[in-house]
Design goal:
The chain is an alpha/beta fold. The protein is built from seven helices and seven strands, in the order H-E-H-E-H-E-H-H-E-H-E-E-H-E. Helix 2 runs parallel beside helix 3. The longest helix has 14 residues. The model has no long low-confidence stretch (mean pLDDT about 85).
Length: about 180
């Protein structure tokens, strides 16, 4: 859709392709190529890949994306998963433990950034990870969460803004 080019060309915003790839690198390469090659030619700046794939596969993705001028962003515990369910899935670890561990894996996999909600940056281990932090789920009003289980309000974001490199704001706030 040519309207997506406006975000970069008219508004100066990066195009964050939240593809949430969770496949081996060969399948991932085909997915990325379909998004960025003609006739689409979407000016993608960042692509998300699942941190849980592990450092070996993530390094392949990092090279693939960097060779195309795209930042590699690892998604951690998906923001639509309620924390109680995430704890069950990750063997009882706290959400901070999960994000820290997945962030460490992403760094080892040579990724540029990790996705998390601002609340996680209150943990000094997570703040100290040597990787950029991308905060998603930004809402002007937290009651505007929609289908997301965990969101970040502007007040929470302002408390940790010095530790955040990127934010993703829903296009619904940008108008038509």
């Amino acid at each position: 859709d040519p309207r997506h080019r406006r975000y970069r060309d008219e508004y100066g915003c990066d195009v964050f392709a939240d593809l949430k790839i969770c496949h081996g690198a060969d399948t991932g390469e085909r997915i990325v190529e379909r998004v960025i090659r003609p006739p689409s030619v979407l000016p993608v700046s960042q692509v998300t890949v699942m941190a849980g794939l592990g450092p070996t596969i993530l390094k392949k993705y990092a090279k693939l994306l960097h060779d195309r001028g795209i930042e590699a962003v690892a998604f951690t515990a998906h923001t639509k998963i309620p924390e109680a369910e995430a704890r069950r899935m990750y063997a009882g670890e706290s959400m901070d433990d999960v994000i820290y561990n997945l962030g460490s894996v992403a760094r080892e996999g040579e990724f540029d950034a990790i996705v998390l909600e601002a609340e996680r940056l209150k943990d000094p281990r997570i703040r100290g990870l040597p990787i950029k932090k991308l905060v998603t789920g930004i809402r002007l009003d937290k009651t505007d969460a929609g289908s997301q289980s965990r969101v970040t309000g502007l007040g929470e974001l302002s408390e940790v803004k010095d530790h955040v490199k990127y934010v993703v704001v829903s296009s619904k706030y940008l108008g038509p």
